[in-house]
Amino acid sequence: MYKKWAFVTIGAVFFLILVGGIVRATGSGMGCPDWPKCFGSWIPPTHVDQLPVNYEEIFGAKLKGEVEFNVFKTWTEYVNRLVGVLIGFLIFGTFIAASIEYRSTNRKVIAYSLLAFVLVALEGWLGSKVVSSELHVGLITLHMLLAIAVVFSLIYSLYLAFEYKDSSTDNSGASKKFLVWILMILSFGQLIMGTQIRESIDEIAREVLDRNEWIGLLNGSYYVHIGLGILLLLASIWFYRGSRNEFKGLSRVLLNTLLALILFEFSSGLVLGVFGVPAWIQPIHLTLATMILGIEFGLVLIIGKER
Questions:
Q1: Count of domains forming the chain
Q2: Helix (H, G, I), strand (E, B) or coil at 305
Q3: pTM listed for this prediction
Q4: Average pLDDT of 221-239?
């Protein structure tokens, strides 16, 4: 039961990252200007008539330039919060399942499931600080990194549940693992640099409405980001070609999935750069980046091991 629940929960966390990306891409972060309620209610309004006449006076300082109530942005942010609560229940469910199934055999599974629950609770608290700080960019980035930490905790707990052990008779497993660590460092660097570029775009968007002009106004870090993206793609293809005949079972599946995700990620980056940063591709680009890190972490854990 625990393993199935954990797989579903990991997928749900990636979905939450996608929803969070949609919130940011649509500028809905302050769609609910208060927390945990939204415009002072547990269920947000669907029409401006449901708000006090002086709502602009009450919430105006936190509406980030929104002159009028925007039902789309309000409900986009509200759905994001509901999904976050659901994820919290799912992760608590993985902890309960682990406690029942592994209390007498593998307490580390329980410990890391508990860590994931603690981290997601911290994530909820940090979300409130993001709202109260009126979308402080540093807190937004930390919010995303904490979500990745939740994923890593769940993946490691699941890895422990499958009881892998060493199987390599030479150092090939160690060398392959080292190469995946290099890919993982590149991917993490790309993610951090991408968040910085996104912060720059947010600043530019306040002054320039035409999306087609945004890329031309970015500084050199954007071109470094492109260069590292090409390096990551080439390194991943090289690693795939050198490992596809050696990896079997789950490691082979993860290897194929990793290359596919990196190809999709690179393609989505091209769409962002060529077509004027379309809003619909931004959350996809972010979610793919986090999924790549998750797959790489899984490979690091199981290379050179067998069940």
A1: 2
A2: strand
A3: 0.90
A4: 94
